[in-house]
Every structure is written in C-alpha cells, then in structure tokens.
Amino acid sequence: MRYLLLVLAALICSSTATAQGRYPLTIGVRDSLRSQTLGETRRFLVYTPPSYSDTTFAPQRYPVLYLLDGDAHFHSVTGLAQILGTGVNGTYAVPEMIVVAIPNTNRTRDMTPTKVTVGFDGKPTEAFRTSGGMANFLSFIKNELIPDTDTKYRTTPYRIFVGHSLGGITTINALFTIPETFNAYVAIDPSLWWDNAVLLKTTKERLSNADYRNKVLYLGQANTINPDDSTANPHFNAMVRFNSLAQTYNKSGLRFGYKYYDDDDHGSVPLITTYDALRFIFDGYRLDLGRLLGSPALLTAHYETISAKLGAPFTPSEAIINQLGQIALSQDTTKAIGFFEIGTRLYPNSPRSHDRLGAIWAAKGDKAKAIGYYRRSLELNPGNTRAADALKKLQ
After folding, report:
1. Are 372 and 391 in contact (CB under 8 A)?
2. What's the angle, vertex CA 259, arms to CA 257 and CA 264, rounded to 5?
3. pTM to 2 decimals?
4. pLDDT at residue 124, rounded to an integer
C-alpha cells in the first residue's frame, strides 16, 4: 500500500511537467498596501500553494504564515511550505499554507520595541536613531496587512508569525502584546539583548499569568559564542535566560519549544529553525495515508484531533478525500463510499464526490441512490456529459 501511494505521488508530480522549452517559473506575486499607520507604501510578496489555483477540486482555505525580513527568506520558507505540505513525494507533514513575506523599509524602526540611542559601549549609536517603532509596525500588520490578505485570499483564521534576529523579538513581543492576532510564533535567534534585555523583564509575569492556550512559541538559538569573548555574550545569554524563564514559569498554556543549534551561526540558522518550527507547531498533523485508508472514521478523527490541539478548524482537502476514496475502491467499496460521503459533507457544492457516489451505487445495483447522486452532480456541473449519459441509462 505504501508503494502504491508513492507511485501515485510520482504520477501526480509528473503530470505537472510541461513541454520542453524555456518558460517563466512563478513562485509568488508582488503586492503593496498604502499604510495609514506607517505613512508609507509597504510592499510584500505572496506565495500560494499549487492547489490554490487548481480548479479540479473544490476551492479550499489556507492558514497564513507572515514572514519578516521577507525579501531575504521568501524562497527558503516557501520552499519548505511546498515540500512539507503539498504532497511532494507523498509528504503531508503540515497543511498547505499561504506565505506573506514583508520586506523592510526601516528595519531598526519597525523591529525594536523601545527607543535606544546608545550601543553596548554606552556611546551614541547613529544606527539606533529611528528605533522604537515596533508598536506601530505590529499595528500595521494586525489592522491593515492581515485584513487586506483575508480580503484578497481564501484564508483560515490560523496564522503563524516568523522572524529572525530583530524579527525574532518582534514575534515574541507580538505574543506579549497582541496575542489574539497569531496562533503560532517563531523566534529565530532573537535579539533579546535589546535595551538591556527589556523583554525579559516582563517574561516571567506574562508566562505566569497570561492566557496563551492554543498558542505556540518556538525559539531556535544559534551558536554565537565567540572564542575571543572577553566578557559575557549578551545576545547568547539573553536567549538562555528566556528559555530558563519559559521552562520554569510557563503556566499560561503556551506550548513552548526550544532548540540550540550548535552547528549553526546567526546567519545559517533560519532555514533549519523554520523547518523544525513548522514540524513542532503542527506536531501530529502528518497524514499517514496508508493508516487513514483503514477507515473513513480515522480521517475524520485525525482532523478533529488536530483542530482541538491547534484551536482552529482544519479539514482535509477534497483532493485528499478523493485520493483516499479512489484507492479504497480497489479494496473495499464500503470504505470508498465513506470517504466520498465525507467529501459531500465538507464540499457540498462540488460535483466530484456526488459523481463518484453515483457511479459506485450504480455498480452496486442501487438505482435509486445512484440516480440521486448523479442528479445532484449534474445540478452542480451541468456540463458533465458522462454523468448525464449514466443518468439516462439508469432512468
């Protein structure tokens, strides 16, 4: 059965091949939004999974990953989303998702929670002159960018916020100040040293008293210890302290994950952290199609469990349901009927599952049920000549 599933996955991949020749490869689109909060036009990049524009199956809705330093990490994160969630090599480790990547205009302004004018040495630092605008930046994301995305795209209410370095403290501060906005937060080697570790001063209280049930925070720490460190390393030590506080005082319901990447530095750690973070956030989501073929009830129970764990609705796509139903047809028509019935419940306006059920019941000799399903399929897709011919024969 696992071999059969791998063969089917390979066939699906090969079916997307195009004729030989040179042609553009599109990963996403560029978009922009005039922000009243920031007083500037903000550009962003948007990736949608391949199924988003596939008209073969019923349209579905997708969780959204919002990515800071978007111009730097767009290719790597969208690649991870595609290989982990779209069935490449039969892999469904995370749900398919939309990625909205936000490039920078004034990084120091947007990704620092407080205004700081001096560096570690106590001397004025010109680079910090515009610091302290994170509250406005988060307001832009919450009140302008997210509503714009939800209007333009088919989204679900599950959102992930990913940031590296200063972006990492931006995601942590978003959890602390606007926790209703995102469901999961990824802080990649965050700059928790900022302003004498100002975020650490409230971490214990927030994790002890706030309600972060169904929220997830994953922190990945790089090896930034330098052999010639003559004094304490504030960047490294601040993350160690945050992890200690989270492990000791977290009574908020937050699902917290932490990993130290000994073989990665500050620049190399984002890719591997994002991979591990997505697997941590969606722990238990991975679809084992061979196991799920055992019973349609297992499919329903799997998504009910995931929805309860993540605190948001997750359902199988019609493509997954159809794949399971088609495979089940060669083994047990009762199971196949069960899968396609799930399809009619979740996607009542799609003709596909109704058509499949009409064919199955016709083959089983139940003319009344076959006619009912074929009629409904034709109502939804009057151009289905095959179903129309089958209905004429049955009548």
Report:
1. no
2. 145
3. 0.92
4. 86
